[in-house]
Amino acid sequence: MKILVCISHVPDTTSKINFSEGDTKFDTAGVQFVINPNDEFGLTRAMWFKEKQGASVDVVNVGGAETEPTLRKALAIGADNAIRVNTPATDGIYVAKQLAKVAQDGGYDLIIAGRESIDYNGGMVPGMLAELIGANFVNTCIGLEVEGTEATVIREIDGGKETLKTSLPLVVGAQKGIVQESDLRIPNMRGIMQARKKPLNVVEGVEAGTHSKAVKFEKPQPKGDIKLIDPDNLDELVNLLHNEAKVI
Amino acid sequence: MSVLVYTESEEGKFKKTAFEVASYAKGVADMLGTEVTAVSFGAQSAGDLGNYGVSKLLKVNDEKLQKFNAKAYADALKQAAQKEGAKVIVLSQSANAKYLAPILAVQLEAGYASNVVALPEGTEPLQVKRTAFTNKAFSFTTMSTDVKIIGLSKNAFGLKESQTETTEEDFSPSLTEGDFAVNVVSVDKAADKVTIADAEIVVSGGRGMKGPENWGMLEELAETLGAATACSKPVSDMGWRPHSEHVGQTGKPVAANLYIAVGISGAIQHLAGVSASKTKVVINNDPEAPFFKAADYGVVGDAFEIVPKLTEKLKEFKANNA
Ligand SMILES: Cc1cc2nc3c(=O)[nH]c(=O)nc-3n(C[C@H](O)[C@H](O)[C@H](O)COP(=O)(O)OP(=O)(O)OC[C@H]3O[C@@H](n4cnc5c(N)ncnc54)[C@H](O)[C@@H]3O)c2cc1C
Fold first, then answer.
1. Ordered structural domains, chain B, with CATH
2. Distance (Å, rounded) from C-alpha A175 to C-alpha A93?
C-alpha cells in the first residue's frame, strides 16, 4: 500500500497571533512552526501501516522552502520520502489542486490529511482533494483499518460515531482518535540523523486559480472585566446568569 | 437566482441550526434582492421554516437519501443549486455539513468560506468575516467565484424571525452508483444525550476534578441545565472522559450560550477552542488561573463544595421559574 500524508506547516499552539502590513499578513516573527496536530495524528497512523502492513509512506507539503524543517520532522518520525510543492499555499482549492497532481503522479492508495489546519481552519483541503481525484472520502476520521483494497473507517459525528465501509483509493480527514495522544512519537536522535539523508524532492506547482482571498485580519476585542462571585452567595450567580447574561 | 440553504433535520424534525442557517440565508437574500430556497432530506413539511424567511422548500424524498451520505447529499445539493440558479449556498458547521461542503465546492467550482460569523460585509465581491487561528483572530475573506458557499458557525447569527409563505415542492435528484461508494454500517450515538455541537449550555471539567469518579456532580449540574458535558485535553488523554468530550484548539470547538469551566486552568489552547461561547463562567480554587482573565463570571473556591451548591440553587431557580 502506498500512503501519502499531507503535512501543513502551522504556528505552534502556544503562539501569540499577530498581523503585519496593515493587518493583511500573518506576522511570523518569533513564531515556532510545527506539523499541524491533526496531520501528526494521521502520520502516526501511517507509521502503524508501515510497520504492521509494509506500507510505504510519503509526506507532502505545499509551501516555500521555510517549511522544510517541518517536512524533515515528518521524515524523522519515520516517513520514507518527502515532497515539497514549491508554491505558496494560497487558498484551499489551490492547495488541493497541487496535492491532486502529486497524488495522481504517485498513484497512492491511501491519502491521509488533517481534518483542518489550526492556522486558517479552512477544513476543505481533504474533501476537495478527494473529489478532484475521484477518490472516496471520509472526514473526521477517528479509526482506520485497511484489508486489501477494502477500508473500514470510523467517523466522529455530532454526539457519537459511525463505522463506514469503503474501498481504496481513499482520502481521510484525520483527527485525534485515529491514534491516541500517547501514540505520538518524538523523533529520536537516530530518526533525526536518518531524516537528513532521506529524499526531500522539490517539485514546481501546477497552474491553478484561487477561489478566495483573506484580505484583512482582526484580533478579537479584549474581554471586559470579570465579575467575581462569593462562593457563599451563589444566588447572585444564578441571578446574573438569568437577568444580566440571559442565558438561563 | 436564489439563496439555497441546506436545512438539517433529525427524525423528520428540523434541527435548531436549520432555523439559524435559514435566518442567515434570508439576510443574504435581502442583500442580493432575492429569495431563499431550502433543501431538506428528511422533513415532510416546511413546518416552522416559514418563520425564518424561507420561500420555497425542496423536499428530497429518495429512499436512498434517508440516511446522511456526504457524496450523495452533495450531488443532490448541486442539482438543487443548478435548478434554482443559486449563487450563494448556506450551510451549518455540523460534522455532516463540514463533510459535504468541500465536495460540493469542487462539483460547483464554488468558493467556500467556513466558520463564518456574520452577514457579508459586501456583495461585490462577496466578503465574509470568519474565524481563523482557532478563534485567536478573524479573517475577512472575499470569494471570486460565480457560486459561493458559506458555512455559518453555530450561534454566530442566531434566529431572526421573518414570516414568509413557504411553497413546497418534491425534488428528485438523479444519483449515480458512485454517490454510494462510502457506506455506513453502524452508528453509535447516545439517543438521549445533549451533544456539544447542539448544546446551548456546556459544563466542562478539567484536571482539577481529580478523577473520573468525581464527574457525577458535573453530570448533575449539566442535567439540571439541560447541558452537554465536556472536558479539557488532559482529562481525555488520561481516559477520565471520552475523546469526544475533549474541547479546545485540538478538540471540539464550543460556541455555546453558556460555558461553565470547572477546575480548568485556561491554557491558551483550551481558551482558543471555547472563546466563541457567549458567556463563560469559571470555578477554580486558584485566583491566578488564566481562565479568570477570559471569563465573564468567576467563583474562586473549591469545586467540590461549589458545584453541588450551585446545582441546588439552579434546581430552586428552575422550580420557581417553571
Ligand atoms: C499542541 C497542544 C494542543 C493542546 N490542545 C488543547 C485543547 O484542545 N484543549 C485543552 O483543553 N488543552 C489543550 N492543550 C493542553 C493545555 O496546554 C493544558 O495543558 C490543558 O488545557 C490543561 O488542562 P486543565 O485545565 O484541565 O488542567 P490544569 O492546567 O492542570 O488545570 C487544573 C486547574 O484546576 C484547578 N483546581 C485544582 N483543584 C481544584 C478544586 N478542588 N477546585 C477548583 N479548581 C481546582 C487548578 O487551580 C488548575 O487551575 C494542548 C497542548 C498542546 C501542547
1. 2-180 (3.40.50.620), 201-321 (3.40.50.1220)
2. 21
| Residue B193 confidence (pLDDT) | 80
Compute the count of residue pairs across chains A and B with CB atoms less than 8 Å apart.
260
Q: Residue A226: inside a domain, yes or no?
A: no
Distances (CA, A) of A50 to A103, A194, A216, B215: 18, 17, 42, 39
User: How far is residue B131's CA from residue B138's CA, in Å, rounded to a whole number?
Assistant: 4
Number of compact structural domains in chain A:
1
**Residue A248 falls inside a structural domain:** no
Q: Are A127 and A238 in contact (CB under 8 A)?
A: no
- Give domain status of residue A80, yes or no: yes
The answer to whether the CB of B205 is under 6 A from ligand 1 is no
CB A195 within 8 A of CB A187: yes
Mutational test site, ligand 1, from B136, B204, B269, B283, max ligand atoms within 8 Å of CB: B269
With a 6 Å cutoff on the Cβ, whether B241 touches ligand 1 is no
Radius of gyration of chain A (CA): 21
Residue A238 domain-assigned (yes or no): no
Best B10, B11, B133 member to test A by mutation, with max A CBs in 10 Å, is B133
What pLDDT is stored for residue B44 in this prediction? 84
Question: Cα(B267)–Cα(B269) distance, rounded to whole angstroms?
Answer: 5
Which of these, B266, B249, B265, B260, lies nearest to B219 by C-alpha position? Answer: B260
> Which residues 6+ apart lie within 8 Å of A60 measured at CB?
A4, A5, A6, A7, A82, A83, A84, A85, A99, A102
Q: What is the CATH number of the domain that holds A145?
A: 3.40.50.620
Average pLDDT over residues B28-46: 95
**How does pLDDT run across B56-98, given as a tens digit for each residue?**
999 998 999 999 999 999 999 999 999 999 999 999 999 999 9
Q: What is the pLDDT of residue B198?
A: 87
Split at pLDDT 50, 70, 90, the class of A223 is confident
Task: Give the ipTM of the model, two decimals please.
Answer: 0.96
Nearest-atom number in ligand 1 for the CA of B251 is 8
Q: Are B100 and B151 in contact (CB under 8 A)?
A: no
Cβ burial of B288 (10 Å; 0-12, 13-18, 19+) is: exposed
Strand order in the sheet with B228-231: A227-228, B297-300, B279-284, B258-262, B201-205, B228-231
As given in the structure block, the three cell numbers for residue B236 are: 481525555
Amino acid type, A205? G
User: Tens digits of per-residue pLDDT, B99-152?
Assistant: 999 999 999 999 999 999 999 999 999 999 999 999 999 999 999 999 999 999
Position B43 scores a pLDDT of 87
Q: Cell numbers 469542487 correspond to what residue?
A: B106
Closest CA to B266 of A226, A176, A39, A233: A226
